[in-house]
Specification:
mainly alpha; 6 helices; about 75% helix; globular
Length: about 170
């Protein structure tokens, strides 16, 4: 029998099978691409830590990261992940700077400054998000603020690490 556009039923079935096969390949490719967006060792560490902090499975965190604007849960998970990633980078650079100043007169002030800065960041972000305490976005606001402050602090620590002039901390 002839189908629309003059194709036989067999040709239509063959075309449909080919179409489904191509769609499956495309979907598998998309899963592979999206699944590997967060595939570096640093990403894996941040995903594990985010899963621990949010009491979610790593697979759930990865799924949320694939669509950070899907719903409030995904938005919050993504905010947590972005903060964790920034915090891990800061901690790595802070440890480098601490190793650099170890045994100098700069060691103790760096440690005290970092502890005070962490306390300031947490309190300042709690203050900034206090206008929506109890709202579904409160946690996200706090985490976004903490991420932003952490990125700023990372820039400061990097400037210490890159400083080679006389008078740099740890020289």
């Amino acid at each position: 029998t002839t189908q629309p556009y003059g194709h036989s039923l067999r040709e239509c079935r063959t075309f449909r099978t080919l179409e489904v096969s191509m769609m499956r390949r495309f979907l598998l490719l998309m899963v592979a691409v999206v699944g590997n967006v967060y595939a570096t060792p640093e990403d894996d560490k941040a995903i594990k830590e985010t899963a621990r902090r949010t009491s979610r499975a790593e697979s759930e965190v990865r799924l949320s990261l694939g669509g950070c604007d899907r719903d409030q849960s995904s938005i919050s998970t993504c905010a947590e992940y972005e903060f964790v990633k920034a915090d891990q980078r800061l901690n790595r650079l802070y440890r480098e700077q601490l190793a650099r100043v170890k045994g100098t007169t700069s060691e103790r002030p760096l440690v005290l400054a970092q502890k005070a800065w962490v306390r300031f960041r947490d309190l300042d972000c709690d203050y900034q998000a206090s206008v929506i305490v109890g709202g579904s976005m409160h946690g996200q606001w706090v985490l976004d603020c903490m991420r932003d402050r952490t990125v700023e602090r990372t820039t400061h620590i990097e400037s210490f690490l890159n400083c080679t002039a006389n008078g740099c901390p740890g020289q």
